[in-house]
Structure formats: structure tokens, C-alpha cells
Amino acid sequence: MSSKRSTLTRSLALLTALVALAACSRAGGDAGDQPARDKGPAAEVRLGYFPNVTHATALVGVDKGLYAKELGGTKLTTQTFNAGPEAVNALLGESLDVTFIGSGPAINAYAKSKGQAVRLVAGATSGGAQLVVKPEIGSPADLKGKVVTTPQLGNTQDVALKKWLSDQQLAIGAAPDQVNVTNTENAQSLDLFRRGDVQGAWAPEPWSSRLVLDAGAKVLLDEESLWEGGRFPTTVLLVRTQFLREHPQTVEALLRGHLAATDFAVGDKAEAKRIVNGALKALTGKALGDQVLDRAFDNIELTLDPQAGAFPRLAQDAVAAGVVKEAADVTGIADFTLLNKVLSAAGKQPVDTAGLDKK
């Protein structure tokens, strides 16, 4: 009997040690370093995007069924947003799995979740953002006492505007010698500009083109002039880390659809414009004029390269803009494993992570 008790005691001790070890592992481990738990294709993938020309790939891919085709038995559910912070809330709240989004909110989502909740898996659009103003505004100094709007507080254009104003040594505020920066939905900013309630907007396409061609604005600054080679990541593809780990096959399928949509839009620009305009009419209630559509498409580049090398600068820009107090550490944000697998299979060049795939 004593021998049985001794054996039982040793077994209990071993079990206790194993439980303690597991608890320590959970308490001290970093969720971002845990191995993937592949559950196979997802039953559903929830995809977000915006009714903007800078999200043309999403609009084309959804309309042409290119994502659905690659996803096979996985149901595709879509949701649209006005700007990045809304999409970030949906991602972090786990009501969204993947989204097309601006680079600024992508960084913010990564930082807010301490590098855990999201991963950058592809690019979508480069360029396509301008500071447009009333014709009488001829220089940065003329913005003093004026109202300039961006789509949403902390979104990509909001950060870009505030960083640029800082570089111009222009203070933000409501005083006569300051620039009054407000945040307004794109469609509303057009009406406000027409009424004279705002005198400028840092806007993505097609809204910058609409302000110029439909409301008489002029371009004071094209954001491409601030970047070497004129290329900067306007729209990227962001995925929830948990979804990426649990359903890599689904993310890979989505990326194949993304490549197909990009190739289609680049190869048949006229048809891509028609599709995008139809989608914008369905989503916003109004189609774009031909001149607006042509100008907007001329100002963007559709690309799967998210230009990862720009992300450290973008993180620092948010500090200069006064949006955050400390620059986000973006190391680890990029996971281009599946993207480069898809590109390689299509005979295309891989995308550089610029070292942001390592922590």
C-alpha cells in the first residue's frame, strides 16, 4: 500500500510540475512567437475596403469574382469603411479578418496591439493623395487662418497633412495665425469646400480629383513630391494575426485573387475604370465623371508591393504630426511569406520585407 501511495505521490508531483511549466509558458510567452495552429480553409473570410479609387483592386476583385473564385468553398463577406481608424476598430474587435487600409492606420493597429493582432501581408496602391486648396491660396503661409480637412483623425492623410504642416513650421489650431485642421468624411468635405466652409483638403483619390474638377480646387502639393521616386504606400492589405495562423490557405487564396485583380486592372485599365465607377455608384450613390475618373487613375499605381521600407519613416511621421507621442516599432509587422509564394508561382519577383519580418 505504501508503494502505491509513493507512486501516486510522484505522479501528482509530476503532474503539478507540468501544469506549472505550462502556466509559466503562457504567462511569459509572447503570443506573436507561438507556432501557427493551421485549421485549414476558413468557412468565411470578412474583407474590408473603402469606396475610394485608391482601393481599386478591392473594387475590381470583388466585382469580377476574382477573390471568390480563388477562395472556393470559403464564403466572402465584405464591408466598407470611410477611413482607416474604423477598419482598425473592426480588426481589433475581431469583426473583420482582412482589410485594405492606409499605411498609417496599419501601423497604429500594430502598435495598439503591441505587435500582436495584425500583420501586413501585401500592398495595393502607391500614390494618389494631394493637398488641394482654394485658388487664392498660393503658398503654405496662405493656409494660416484657413480650415483644411482630412478624412479622419489619425488616418493616413491626417498624419501626412500634420507632418507637412510641422515641416512648414505652421501651427495647428483655430487662431488667425494657425491652420485649423478638421476631420470630415470625404463626401461631406466636397460639399463643405463648395460652400466655402473649408478651404483645403488632404484627400485620397478620387476625392482630390473631385475637388479639383468638380469644385474648382487647385493642387498645392502632391504627396508624391515628398517621397523619393514619387512612390509611397497609400493602401495595403492587413490581416488579423490569428486568422493568418489558423487559416493560411484562405489568406493565400485571397492573395491569389488580389494578384489576379491587380493584373486585370493594370492590363485592362478602361474596364477597370468602368468597374470601379460602377462600384462607387453602388456604394456612395454617385458615379464619377469621366475626367475625374481618368485623373484619379492617372495618379495611382496598383502594386502588391507595400514598400515596407517606408514604414519606419511613416511611424516617425506620426510623432512629428503630433498624432502619437512615440514612434511605433514596426519590426515584425510584415509577413510576406504567402505573398512571395503566390508571386513566385506566377513567375513574378518577390517583395522585400526591408527587415520588418523580424523582431
Automatic annotation (TrEMBL):
The keyword Cell inner membrane applies. It is found in: Cell inner membrane; Periplasm. Coiled coil: none annotated. It holds the Pfam family NMT1_2. InterPro entries: ABC_SsuA_sub-bd, NrtA/CpmA_ABC-bd_dom. Keywords: Cell inner membrane, Cell membrane, Membrane, Signal, Transport. GO terms for molecular function: ATPase-coupled transmembrane transporter activity. Residues 1-22 form the signal peptide. GO terms for cellular component: periplasmic space; plasma membrane. Belongs to the bacterial solute-binding protein SsuA/TauA family. This is ABC transporter substrate-binding protein. It comes from Saccharothrix algeriensis. The lineage of its organism: Bacteria, Bacillati, Actinomycetota, Actinomycetes, Pseudonocardiales.
